[in-house]
Amino acid sequence: MVMARSSVAILIGICVLGLASTITAQKPCEPRVQMSSLLSGVDVNGSLYIDKMYARCLPSPAKKSASNYEYQPYDGGKFSSVLKDSKGQVVNTFVWYGENIQSLWEMSRYEVVGGPEALKKLSPGSYVLEFAVEDKVFQQFPFSITTKQSSDQFKSMLTAWQHGDVKAIATSFNHDLAASPELRDALLSKRNANWTRWIEERMKKPGAVMIAVGAGHLAGDGSVVDLLQRDGLHVRRIQ
Q1: Which one, of 75, 56, 77, 70, lies nearest residue 138 by Cα?
Q2: Domain termination site, one of 115, 145, 175
Q3: Which of 23, 153, 158, 235 has the smallest set of CB atoms within 10 Å of its CB?
């Protein structure tokens, strides 16, 4: 009976150890590019540009590099980013310089396969950026490019001035500066008052003079035109 109980105790101990081993087992570290570093470094200005980024759990390259960069285009390991369009066609390939800094891999810069002249302009559409070690893809980053029609404020203001629509000009400036009374006071009110005083003093002297100011200073309440008219001067718009 004693031998039987000992056997049972040993079996229970083995089972408990096996359970503990199962609980504490961790998944193997898998290569990943830190999305925060990618998103803060990526820029689309006609073509795709990427600043340095960081990655974790990259394997140490089997091929040793002669430089501090264990990953680089000419020797050592190959870490690449391949940009593809919605049809899966390769747009550009970037091969990175990377070095291991403690637990992170810093991918500090890259070279475009084919040279800088091979960098293609991107049109609106869907794309995917594939990250690979030795041409084996481990992560994808899909994104889209859209266009937004920008409002040409100068063009609309010029059109308004050409048609004598000073109200539209005043509305534009009031909208832009409504959120900051201090900025409006510094950029418009004080300047308008100073120019008005200068013009009134200059009008007391003979001769003609040309004064150039921005269109926003000539429209609406408190403008140079408005202040001059309040002081009894006749102001006429000419074209």
Answers
A1: 56
A2: 145
A3: 23
